[in-house]
Design a protein that fits this description.
Radius of gyration: 16 Å
CATH architecture: 3-Layer(aba) Sandwich
Number of helices: 8
Helix content: 40-55%
Shape: globular
Strand order of the largest sheet: 2-3-1-4-5-6
CATH topology: Pyruvate-ferredoxin Oxidoreductase, domain 3
Number of domains: 1
Number of strands: 6
CATH class: Alpha Beta
Length: about 200
């Protein structure tokens, strides 16, 4: 691996920043160069959040347009919002749980159907993996808040990451307080086994 560009997207409150932190720390534990950059507008709950994670021989923290090897989207519309980072070879890991924005709830906008989002993304890449990460998180960890960790497990199985699985486990033990370690380790394993 010379370099690997992973774009993490979602909405505030989904743990995108925690996700990037876990991947980055696990990469460092594996002796892999890693550079990250958070570029988020409204960081409050519900606002759009993107984090660039670049592994290997990289110097700039930002992934160029059409330069993502992987886009992990914890919310379907967010994958569409950042489609400019896709190319025909990009793998999209798309969590199927929608978080409806207040503009839609207020009747000021409409939320697109999942099929419509996928269809638009397929105009760029056919490599789209729709996952039920939130459902898995709820089942194994008892909360959808572990969705981000389920997705890390999926990511570690779906692509040839230069990071050993055990390094993710070690990092989770570092990042989370003791009472949250076991549910998150279960979420990681469930995500890994689900794909």
């Amino acid at each position: 691996m010379t370099k690997l560009n992973i774009l993490l997207v979602g909405v505030g409150g989904q743990g995108i920043l925690t996700t990037s932190g876990i991947i980055a720390r696990a990469a460092l534990r594996s002796g892999v160069n890693v550079v990250t950059a958070e570029t988020h507008g409204m960081a409050q709950r519900g606002g759009s959040v993107e984090v660039h994670v670049r592994l290997g021989e990289v110097h700039s923290p930002l992934i160029p347009y059409a330069g993502a090897d992987v886009v992990v989207s914890l919310e379907p519309v967010e994958a569409a919002r950042y489609a400019q980072y896709l190319n025909e070879n990009t793998l999209v890991i798309l969590n199927n749980r929608s978080i409806v924005p207040t503009t839609v709830s207020a009747g000021l906008a409409t939320y697109p159907k999942l099929e419509e989002i996928i269809s638009n993304l397929e105009k760029i890449t056919k490599n789209i993996k729709v996952v039920e990460a939130s459902k898995i998180a709820n089942e194994v960890a008892g909360t959808v808040q572990a969705t981000n960790v389920v997705v890390i497990g999926m990511l570690s199985k779906l692509i040839d990451l230069p990071i050993e699985y055990s390094k993710f486990e070690e990092t989770i033990k570092d990042v989370f307080p003791e009472k949250l370690q076991d549910p998150n380790l279960k979420a990681l394993k469930a995500g890994y086994e689900a794909v």
